[in-house]
Amino acid sequence: MQANHTTDSILIVDFGSQVTQLIARRVREAGVYSEIAPFSEAEKAFHRMKPKGIILSGSPASVPEEGSPRAPQVLFDSGLPILGICYGQQVMSEQLGGEVRPGHETGAEGHRGGEFGRAFLTVTKACALFDGLWAEGERHQVWMSHGDKVTQFAPGFEIVATSDGAPFAVIADEARQYYGTQFHPEVVHTPDGAKLLANFVHKVCGLAGDWTMAAYRETKVAEIREQVGTGKVICGLSGGVDSSVAAILIHEAIGDQLTCVFVDHGLLRLDEREQVERMFRDHYNIPLVVVDAEARFMAGLDGVSDPEKKRKFIGGEFINVFEEEAAKIGGADFLAQGTLYPDVIESVSFTGGPSVTIKSHHNVGGLPERMNMQLVEPLRELFKDEVRALGRELGLPDMFVGRHPFPGPGLAIRIPGEVNKERCDILRKADSIYLDEIRKAGLYDAIWQAFAVLLPVKTVGVMGDSRTYDSVCGLRAVTSTDGMTADVYPFDASFLTGVSTRIVNEVQGINRVVYDYTSKPPGTIEWE
Ligand code: XMP
């Protein structure tokens, strides 16, 4: 369920561009709430959201091609300001009576049509979109990525900026407050792009830019109260930021109608369980059931070394434990989840076909139907960094809010091969030394995720006068913005040497340390 927003908002109609999410980011950074709806759902979203302005995204599709998507007519009938970006500009032009042709037909460049990458435009006329930013006669860098272009604009429009490859680089119909850019203002390669989008939402749409986490918190608390009524809510805590923030927000709304369940499956990081207990019971006074399920998880993982089998077992067993606990408290009407916006946005695919499953991610999917519960997902409109901001707003300490992500199946997928308590204990120690050194070096926040891996390989070493024959520990650290792609974090050799020495000296069972130098792709962040 999505909220019925009374807040001023912008509706972003998605035609399948790779960078549509960035439009939402930029608008929110300007202090205005925005939501993305696929073009096929845009009419419904329009009626639900009652937005104050509309942005039409780019697309891999081509307007002149038969069957390519169009914006619902209701948007043009609404009288609201509209900004069309790239395909959005073209589709708007075509739907309002202009003409769009494939780049190669116009031949204006004397070779194949379109422009890709950095380009410069010249401002030919002032308009509200450029207010306080770009003046007539100035040249500005923008990012283009288009094959087709508008060849005849619709009645009412005029050219306000032009470039060599796109004579209609920006068009405007100031009377109707319609604007179209052939370039992409949402990407960082258009240096003034964020300011142009801010101009659109503030100066064209007239929105104040007062969407803050404090306001979000207040709205959500009211919505949760309304949704839940006198019902009971159960929330599975993972120790991660998302489920924690969701739980604290829900608790603020409905108090002891919420029960949190934390399953200790024995695959947690060092002291993680104690930290969660302290945080929830002592700091927030939130009812917390901690289930000591280590023995049953270890028993189930005995003899299992296939990564997918491990994931499936852990996911299934998690649900079993959770169900048992829910039954003990007399059942619940609602299940709370820390689902985020990127998981919710329906991506529009023009290539068709399902995507390949690389790993089956562990979540509590399947639970709500099995237990006949409705979902409470108060973060489903937020991006990760917004969840962190909300966490701070709710008083979560920075140390907790800024924690690196940790996968549901925990250490099991960081121990290739067979998992048992002894190997988990070894890995926990090595991992905690590694993170301790990273924190001491002041690098923790610069890294998306850092962790140790325990390999099923034994090598020979020498300590003192004795031969050792112990396991290898792998270290991983990556930078990333969303976990979808990642770069290796380039530690100094001296830092890695220091960590290696400490691990080998302090952790019995490890006698060699290696650093993982694989980006994603081709590697994944986790090893399994
Ligand atoms: P991969 O290994 O697929 O990981 O590159 C991408 C991000 O997802 C996290 N991850 C998981 N998170 N359940 C989760 O909640 C899982 O099963 C799971 N597997 C991977 C991983 O830690 C990284 O941040």
Describe the structure.
The structure is a single chain. With 528 residues, the chain is α/β, with parallel strands linked by helices. 41% of the residues are buried. The longest helix has 22 residues, at 307-328. Mean pLDDT is 91; it is low at 1-5 and 106-112. Helix 9 (272-283) links the parallel strand 13 and strand 14. It has helices at 20-29, 42-49, 73-77, 87-95, 103-106, 193-204, 213-228, 241-254, 272-283, 294-301, 307-328, 341-344, 367-370, 384-393, 398-401, 421-440, 493-506, and strands at residues 9-14, 33-38, 53-56, 82-85, 99-101, 115-123, 139-146, 149-152, 158-163, 170-173, 178-181, 233-237, 258-264, 288-292, 334-336, 374-376, 449-463, 466-479, 487-488, 510-515. Helix 7 (213-228) packs across helix 8, helix 7 crosses helix 14 (384-393) and helix 16 runs antiparallel to helix 17. The strands form four sheets. Strands 2-1-3-4-11-10-9-6-7 form a nine-stranded mixed beta sheet, sandwiched between helices. A five-stranded parallel beta sheet has the order 14-13-12-15-16, sandwiched between helices. It contains 17 helices and 20 strands. The chain binds xanthosine-5'-monophosphate. Xanthosine-5'-monophosphate binds at residues 359, 361-362, 405, 407-409, 449, 483, 520, 524-526.
